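G., the chain you wanted modeled:
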Amino acid sequence: MKRKIYTLLIAATALITLHSCLNSDEEYNTYSDTAITSFKLGTLKRILHTTSSTGADSTYTTTFSASSYVFHIDQLNCLIYNTDSLPLNTVISKCLVTLTTATGGFANWVLENDTTQVYSSTDSIDFTYPRVLRAYAGNGVDYRDYTVTVVAHQEDSTAVRFTQYTTQDAFKNFNTMDAVAVGRTLYLFGADKTSTEVYSTDIFDGNNWKDIATNIMLQPSVAKKVIYSNGYFYAINDNDVIRSANAEDWTTINSDGKLQCIFGASKNELYAVSKDSTIMVSLDGGTTWEPDEIDEAYTDEVPVEDLNCVVQPLETDTTFQRVMLIGNDEDYKYPVIWTKLVNTEDPDDEEEWYRLEKNTMNYSLYLPGYDLLHVFGIEGYMMGLGLNGNNPSCPWFSYDDGITWEQDTLYDTSSSFEIGNLFTAAIDDINRVWIISGKTGQVWTMRQNGVAWRAKEKEAALRKE
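Predicted structure as tokens:
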């Protein structure tokens, strides 16, 4: 009898214990989970080149912390790679790695013949080729293999690449030119003394140009300035405003003869300068025009030559666009810059045009005066260049909406270009600057390597079209 009671007590105790465990909030880990949860590189060496006072080339070694370079961990495909390439000439043959694993696991590097080397944060690893990292679970049995790739730039991000295309004899007869890039097509409008001709090329070609036969005769005034906005080209054909969807079939949409030049467009508005030097605006696609609101203190300082327009969204509120008018005035030896903010969702909520001043604060940092001035928007900043003797000038850049400018001599245009005293320039959708001569017929593009890297996705999409 005592034996039966003792057996019942043991059973009851087990039930109570089991009930207590089932109702506990404590989580129990089986230690079979396996994953790399973070991956960073430490301090790396970089070999840099320099030139001595005698002109001899030499190298020296410096170091930098690579911990800020983010490594993406693709858990689905078991891949680890850096999303931003390490700088040019980084030594990746000896890298220190800091990593963490899930649930108390550990990691080994997989060597040849499937042997392994225990991971240590103090042992350097050669990443000149992809490496396999084996992440073990806490039970020491389950594991996953990750392929680790470390990418370093093979080109200098600051270097500028110049490309020359086939010389175009047809362009040598032009004395006025303007170029416009639309999607993957570049259009050139070139005029002699009697008419304007239209040519086009694929931006991924540049050697072969198509002569576009237009349905009406385009006067030389067309080649002074052509813009593209919301599916249409716009230009002034003597006294008429004309537009076209394909640069071939043109329609007259306004004949009041008031406009001198249509210079640009924001999302919902077209902009022009009238023959009496007033900034005009159209809200109906160029059919009707009226004077735009302007700072009346400077109405006599509206530019009339080499007009450029840069439109960029505000970083703080993308419903607003900043419109910049940059051009030359006959009374000034430097460009005149006007700007206004436009609300793309509420036309009534916008500022008037006002002129940026050249004063003692920015006098030495202002865009110089050039004939054939061209200004573009690129990656949120502005680039400007013009005729410097018989070549395009090295570009000037503004990172504060035209207030101050600085020149980048890495764009050395003096040694290669032969453009005579006439050229036009345009920027395409992948941020290459095209330079076309009306005297020598030369065609060039230039782009900084870093800009090219950031345009890779856009370039791939355009190539598919």
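Confidence is low (pLDDT under 50) at residues 1-31.

Shout if anything looks off.
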